[in-house]
Amino acid sequence: MKSNRRSKYLKNDCNTDITSNKEKKHKKKMNAKKNTRKYKFDTVEVKEKELDKMDVPVSVLKQIENSESDLINYTEEGSQLVTNVHLANDNRENNRRETDKSERDIRLKAVELESEIANAKFMEISSQWPIILKKNDALEIHEYLELQKKRGLDLIEQKNQMIEILKRDLAESDNRFLQEQAAQSEDVRILQERIENQVKFMRKQYKNHIQYIKSTMDQQREYRIDRAKKGWENLYNKIILTETDSLNNRLAMIDKKENNIMKQYEMNEEIIRNLKSNMNTELNYLQREFELIKLKCVDNVEKLNYNYQVLKRREEENACAKAIQRRKINKCIL
């Protein structure tokens, strides 16, 4: 009988195991989400530190903070939508467990009570058999057997009624399980629809906020470009003025130097003319001296030529005299 009872309530035990497995999976998912959020939070902190190191405009940082706040709010709202469905499902599951537990306890008590009554009736029927066996009268035995038969039929009817009650409870449990399964399927469908809508909404919001940040950055870039252009134009004008003043000063100095050079040139021209006149006078004097020296040189050359002719003639005469003396000496020796 205990084995039959266990087989009858095996389905409820399986449902409880499935629910506990679902709870474990849900806990694992929640832990994974926490770890993911922690990683994202650490990543956000690293990015914020990098942004702090960078020279980011205040307007861009403000837009980033506003976008971050809006996206966090949208994410929390989406999480609440999903959590509401999950909580409703958990509440319904808890109510189902409590209902199943209470009904199971009632059924167990009813089965135990029916079992006690049936055991009592069975013991009563069993106790009558020795008495019947001691009877010798056929009519009396027939009456006792009919009474035993009636008691047996009552016991079987009682068992059949209990079986029908258990079948009805089992059918109700099956119907309730199917209803709960349909409700869970509907919750899953609603949850899937909400998640898909939330994902689409978050994608759209991410794109919009990225566009907002890009627009703010473009405005800030244009502002900085305009400011840089104005700064460069002011610097350029300042440089032009400085260079113009410097150029004017240099031109003034060049004019002054040119005037000084012209004056110096005129003075040098006067000096050159005087020098040229003096040099012409001196050149004429030197030329006359040169002519005189030339005449003296010609005279000296003539004198040297004459002396050379005289010396040459004397040398020839001496050579002749020496030759004559050699011949005389040779003749004397011979």
TrEMBL record:
Region listing for Disordered, in residue ranges: 1-35
Keyword Cell wall biogenesis/degradation assigned: no
Example of a GO cellular component annotation carried by this entry: axonemal dynein complex
Domain (Dynein regulatory complex protein 1/2 N-terminal) ranges: 88-188
Keywords attached to this entry: Coiled coil
Pfam families reported for this sequence: NYD-SP28
Domain of life where this protein originates: Eukaryota
Gene Ontology BP terms: axonemal dynein complex assembly; cilium-dependent cell motility; regulation of cilium movement
Chain intervals with Basic residues compositional bias: 23-35
Protein name: Coiled-coil domain-containing protein
